[in-house]
Amino acid sequence: MEQTTGEKRKFIIPHTYAIIFSIIILAMLATYFLPAGQYERVEEGGRTIVVENSYSQVDQSPVSIFEMFTAIPLGMQAGARIIFYIFLVGGAFGIIRATGAIESGVNALVQRMQGSGIWLIPISMTVFSILGFSTGMSEETIIFVPIGIAIARALGYDALVGTAMVSTGAASGFIGGMLNPFTVGIAQEIAEVKLFSGIGFRSVVYVFILLVAIIYVMRYAKKIQADPTKSIMYDIEQKIKLVKVSDIDTFDKFTTRHILVLLTLLTGILVNMYGVFKLDWFLDELAANFIIVGFVAGILGGLNINKLFDALVDGMKIVAFGALIVGFARAILVVLESGVIIDTIVYSLVQVISHLPQAFNAVGMFAVQVIINFFIPSGSGQAATTMPIMVPIADLLGMERQVAVLAFQYGDAITNSIIPTSAALMGYLAIAGIPYERWVKFIWKLIVIWLIIAAIALVAAVMLGVS
């Protein structure tokens, strides 16, 4: 037998599904040890409201092992509307991606801006941020990282700048989340608040988040352009032959077809906004409109019928991880409800958070979401896991449910740019050849600034009564 004493074993981060299944097991065990209890609830204005000071203990109702496994298909059923919404929207964007319009459009933009040097950074970051807040684009932007790096190196920067142009731009929009159907849309559906409401407040916070990111990346770019030895990647960059600008044109030329596809996508987003704010559209109508947009974009983009539906299925495959995790996360809620202990957990958290000054209650919820995000980095999965608990907490603390959604949104999105459990981040770094520890050295200050902005925004949201 080989001796392993003294060998340093590498810690392997558990699979997200494994983490959630572990939580399901813990939830089942908790039904044996936590006292069962319930709040009284009433219907008010189309919402189910928790009655303050109505918590009382009831008879214990422990969940068996078989009932725990039964909770998984029941969770899938409970989250079906959200799950199929994610699949259909993902499929629609799969068709749009198959046309090559987004890739060619971004490529055309960066080539047009080659002579503008430093100004390519804010323009690129703004473009990717728009994709982030309107379509929830995250992992999908990985394909643009090689272009960003090639451009950055050609302009005298390093791989960190090229990666940040893409990733922090998309992240800024994802944090803003004004029209993000996968995080804000799902959280608001669970919280029973009007879809994409609070867009004005979110937009203001988004501007600050994006501006700070742009300034942060531009300052670093200017510093290493003036003195390349200041680059965090200096030794690695010295080993890499600089890529010529002429070598970056790896995508198809930007054509009239591509323009029509992007105009179709823009029109679809505008129609969805009109439907949400004027026609009371919700997930079913939004999904239907995205399907129409996908089909029209595919036809205009030159896809034949087989390629169109292949792309639809491929798009669904990409989001399958996040879609099905909603059902697994809902299984946690099914177990907690079956064991009649979810209100006990809510009651306990309320007792802790309520000792904070009222304006900082939301910051406490935000801190909880930041911690949970390390273990459940999927935005849709985290929404399904935490919002059923955070909503009644908000009610009991006299806080607007919109603020609970904001606390989830910022807690979910900001740390995705630094936590090692983020699939998008690991994809960025893998394709860019950037060691994780060097990325942390580059990005940690920006993450701290973003967290501070979010905390201030949540205090402001409470004081302003954002709803």
From TrEMBL:
Location relative to the cell: Cell membrane
One Pfam family of this chain: DcuC
Topology in membrane: Multi-pass membrane protein
UniProt key word Cytoplasm: no
Top-rank taxon, per record: Bacteria
GO cellular component: plasma membrane
Keyword set includes Protein biosynthesis: no
Keywords on record: Cell membrane, Membrane, Transmembrane, Transmembrane helix
TM regions (residue ranges): 12-34, 78-96, 117-136, 142-161, 168-187, 199-218, 259-277, 289-306, 318-336, 356-376, 442-466
PANTHER family cross-referenced by the UniProt entry: BASIC AMINO ACID ANTIPORTER YFCC-RELATED
Record's protein name: Na+/H+ antiporter NhaC family protein
